[in-house]
Every structure is written in structure tokens, then in C-alpha cells.
Design a protein that fits this description.
Elements lengths: L4 H5 L1 H17 L6 H17 L7 H12 L20 E3 L4 E3 L10 E3 L2 H12 L12 H18 L2 E4 L2 E4 L1
Antiparallel strand pairs: 1-2, 1-3, 4-5
Helix pairs in contact: 2-3, 2-4, 3-4, 4-6, 5-6
The chain binds zinc ion.
Length: about 170
């Protein structure tokens, strides 16, 4: 009904939107999570329709934010072991938690995050997609964020993006 004209006529924009939609369909939406999913997807369409430039990270941020809103919401402000500030944050994929580097002694896959990446993840957790254009990330942060979000989604939701579709892994 909002008729996103730019989206309809531009395959790159449409492709990013379809990617987000396919993720929602693959993951599914809970009854309680429906209002959050609706407003997130509406804002995402608005962003993809109106933004002058596009960022391939947006669908990845969308996956993270969608999962956060549907209940997989990691605490991003303090170490989950010692409760101190996350000075050198390490993300533990299996547990889905962040700890400081001093507490990062568990087995299993884990990723170190720079302060820039952690700040960006918090920003995505707290702000509408309409503000994601404000993120101006270094190449290093972009790589870290794609790896950590893909790892998280694959492990916890069991979905992986392959050849234009989400597959159960
Ligand atoms: Zn700690």
C-alpha cells in the first residue's frame, strides 16, 4: 500500500528486500514477535526505497536485528561472566554471548570484535533501519560483523544463505 516505487524499478534494491523477506519466511515469526517483525520490515523497505546509496551489509544487519527482536537478544553491554565492561569483547557463537577477553576461556567457535564492530552491533540492536545509513564502517568492522552475524544465525537459527536461498544447516 505504501507503493515503494524505487524498489519496484530497481533490481538491486528489490534483491536486498527479497533477501530480508526470505529470511523472515525461513526463520518464521512468533505471535508475540509479529508487531516487531512488521515494523522492522516496513522500515527496511522504506530504507531500501529511499536511501540514495545501498549497503550490502543491511540484509545481514536485518538478520541480526530480526533474530534479536524474536527473542535471541544477546546482552551487548557487559561481560556475561564477570559483569565488567566489555573492553576487548569476544563473541561466543555457541553460547550466543559476549565476554571480555579475560573470560574468553570456553571451547568452541568465537570471534573477537573490535570496539567499532561492537558499537555498530549495539546501534543495529537499538535503532530502526532508517538510521543504519549513519553507520560508516571500516573494512575490518564490516568483515567482523558479517562473520559474527552469519555465525550466530547459522548456529542458533540454523539458517545459511547459499545460492540465493536460505538453507537449514
Ligand atoms: Zn569478563
Amino acid at each position: 500500500m505504501d507503493s515503494p516505487d524505487m524498489l519496484r524499478g530497481n533490481y538491486e534494491r528489490l534483491g536486498l528486500a527479497v533477501n530480508c523477506q526470505k529470511f523472515m519466511e525461513a526463520m518464521g515469526i512468533s505471535f508475540e514477535g509479529a508487531p516487531a517483525a512488521y515494523s522492522l520490515f516496513s522500515d527496511m523497505l522504506k530504507l531500501l526505497n529511499e536511501s540514495e546509496t545501498l549497503d550490502k551489509l543491511w540484509p545481514i544487519f536485518f538478520r541480526a536485528r530480526f533474530a534479536f527482536d524474536q527473542g535471541y537478544n544477546p546482552e551487548l553491554h557487559m561481560c556475561q561472566t564477570c559483569s565488567n565492561e566489555l573492553k576487548y569483547p569476544v563473541f561466543h557463537v555457541q553460547e550466543g554471548v559476549l565476554t571480555c577477553s579475560a573470560c574468553a576461556f570456553t571451547q568452541g567457535p568465537r570471534f573477537r570484535l573490535s570496539k567499532e564492530s561492537l558499537d555498530a552491533l549495539r546501534f543495529v540492536q537499538e535503532n530502526s533501519p532508517l538510521r543504519w545509513t549513519e553507520l560508516n564502517l571500516s573494512v575490518k568492522a564490516r568483515k567482523e560483523l558479517s562473520r559474527v552475524i552469519d555465525g550466530f544465525i547459522q548456529y542458533h537459527i540454523g539458517l545459511s544463505w547459499e545460492n540465493g536461498m536460505f538453507r537449514r544447516v
